[in-house]
Amino acid sequence: MTSAVARPRQRPASERALLWLEALLALGAYGGAAGLILGAVDLGDATADLPFGSTVFAGVALGVVNGLLPTVVLVGALRHAGWARAGHWLVGAALTAWIVVQVSVLGWPPHWLQVLYFAYGLVILALAHRLTRAGHAI
Fold first, then answer.
1. 53, 47 in Cβ contact below 8 A?
2. Per-residue DSSP letters for 7-57?
3. DSSP for residue 1
4. What average pLDDT is seen over the chain?
5. Domain residue extents for the chain
6. By the 8 A CB rule, do 33 and 60 touch?
7. Concatenated DSSP letters for 102-123?
8. What is the C-alpha to C-alpha distance for residues 94 and 90, in angstroms, rounded to an integer?
9. Contact indicator for 117, 99 with CB cutoff of 8 Å
10. CB 25 within 8 A of CB 120
11. CB burial class (10 A; 0-12, 13-18, 19+) of residue 39?
12. Model confidence over 31-53: pLDDT tens digits?
């Protein structure tokens, strides 16, 4: 007699990609936040344009918005939390909004990294849309 062992549900490729993108975003944000808070990142004259002229404030904000938020959503998705799908949308929207605000505060033209991260946010939004349309349970 053969017993069937229940396998965990295989996540679609688009969901796996989304989870990886959120993990990498969080890791990068934590690194950037640490650099800003500890003074390892020198923004030069742009520091005066930051809210409160503070790289510490900018670092904490970066860590919360683009580090902690994606981490919470990633953990929720891995635990199949019902709110995770909406969380993916929030992560993508937060990242794109972050870049829009950053460019408006620091000035035009945007740095190539800002363009890259804006596109990164759009990819997260596109994958969240794909999961929502496909009706995948997260």
1. yes
2. PPPPPPHHHHHHHHHHHHHHHHHHHHHHHHHHT-S--GGGGGGSGGG-HHH
3. -
4. 90
5. 13-134
6. yes
7. HHHHH-SSPPHHHHHHHHHHHH
8. 6
9. yes
10. yes
11. exposed
12. 999 999 999 988 888 888 888 88
